[in-house]
Amino acid sequence: MLHVANESIPDLRRSAPKSVFASCYGSISTMLGMLEELAVDAPLSPSRFSHSVHNTQAGLFSIWANNHQASNSIAAGDETFAHGFLEAVSLIQSKAGAEEGALFVTGDESMPAVVADRSDAPEGAYALSLVLEPSNEDCGIKLSIEAGAAGGDTSIPDALLFLRWFLSGESTLRLVHPLRTWVWTRV
Amino acid sequence: MIESSKVEYGCRLADLGLVTALGSTPAENWTRLVNEDPVRICLRDDLIPGESLKFGSVSDELPPIPEHLQRYAGRNNQLALAAYETIADSARLAIAKYGAHRVGVVVGSSTACVAEAELAFRKRQPEGDVGADFALVQISYGGLSEFLQEISGAAGPCYALSTACSSGAKAIAAARRLLDLGICDAVISGAVDSLCKLTSNGFRALQALSKDVSNPMSVSRDGLNLGEGAALFLLLREPGGVQVLGAGESSDAHHISAPSPDGSGAYRAMEASLADSGLGVSEIAYLNLHGTGTPQNDAMESAAVHRLFGSRVPCSSTKPFVGHTLGASGAVEAAFCWLVLASRVGNELILPPHVFDGEYDSSMPELSLVSRGDRAKVSAVASVMSNSFGFGGSNCSLIFSAGAA
Question: Per the CB < 8 Å rule, is B159 touching A46?
Answer without folding.
Answer: no
